[in-house]
């Protein structure tokens, strides 16, 4: 039997999970995401998706793959916008999962998002569809049920397509979200 304090992760053997370190993080769940991403071979898929994005220069030393990975990690950790990037630049787990001590700051993440073209969004949508279809094929799922629901995202300022939502009593976006239940 393996105790948690003895666990070493495969995607980065330098990371050891233990309880006696003084560096703390609220994002330890990202270690399991990184382990899953490595085991599922998603690193190459994300590299391919980033390679298809437009060639606009984002920053002096941040690759499209690096920025796409950082955005995925921010979203998976529950940070809904790029403002969190500044605070998380110093998070020890984010640095380890991302594989660098030099994480992109918020302005660079914002430039990356602003530089995405319609074609880039289409490429990313195809990536999501490809991953979903791979999951369905791999798990031999013959029936797929989609649960489509709406949600609310607050907006601030005069953002395009934002509107007042009487139910929540605030202005924001009201996107539809689809979940696959097999």
**Physical arrangement of strands within the biggest beta sheet:** 2-4-3
What does the largest sheet look like?
3 strands, antiparallel
> What are the secondary-structure elements, in order, as H or E?
HHHHHHHEEEEE
> Helix- and strand-based class?
alpha+beta
Radius of gyration: 19 Å
Rough shape?
Answer: globular
Q: What is the first-to-last residue Cα distance?
A: 33 Å
**Count of helical stretches:** 7
Count of β-strands: 5
Instruction: Give the count of structural domains.
Output: 2
Query: Which bin fits the share of residues in helices?
Result: 40-55%
- Low-confidence segments: 1-5
Short description:
With 182 residues, the chain is an alpha+beta fold. The protein has two domains: 4-141, no CATH class; 143-182, no CATH class. It is built from seven helices and five strands, in the order αααααααβββββ.
């Amino acid at each position: 039997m393996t105790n948690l304090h003895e666990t070493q992760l495969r995607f980065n053997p330098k990371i050891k999970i233990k309880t006696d370190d003084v560096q703390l993080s609220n994002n330890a769940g990202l270690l399991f995401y990184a382990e899953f991403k490595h085991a599922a071979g998603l690193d190459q898929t994300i590299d391919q998706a980033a390679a298809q994005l437009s060639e606009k220069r984002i920053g002096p030393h941040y690759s499209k793959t690096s920025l796409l990975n950082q955005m995925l990690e921010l979203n998976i950790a529950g940070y809904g916008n790029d403002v969190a990037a500044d605070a998380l630049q110093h998070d020890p787990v984010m640095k380890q999962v991302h594989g660098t001590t030099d994480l992109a700051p918020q302005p660079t993440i914002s430039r990356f998002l602003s530089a995405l073209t319609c074609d880039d969004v289409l490429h990313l949508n195809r990536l999501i569809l490809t991953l979903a279809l791979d999951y369905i094929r791999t798990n031999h799922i013959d029936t797929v049920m989609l649960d489509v629901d709406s949600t609310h995202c607050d907006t601030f300022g005069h953002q395009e397509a934002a509107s007042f939502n009487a139910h929540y009593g605030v202005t924001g976006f009201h996107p539809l979200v689809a979940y696959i239940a097999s």
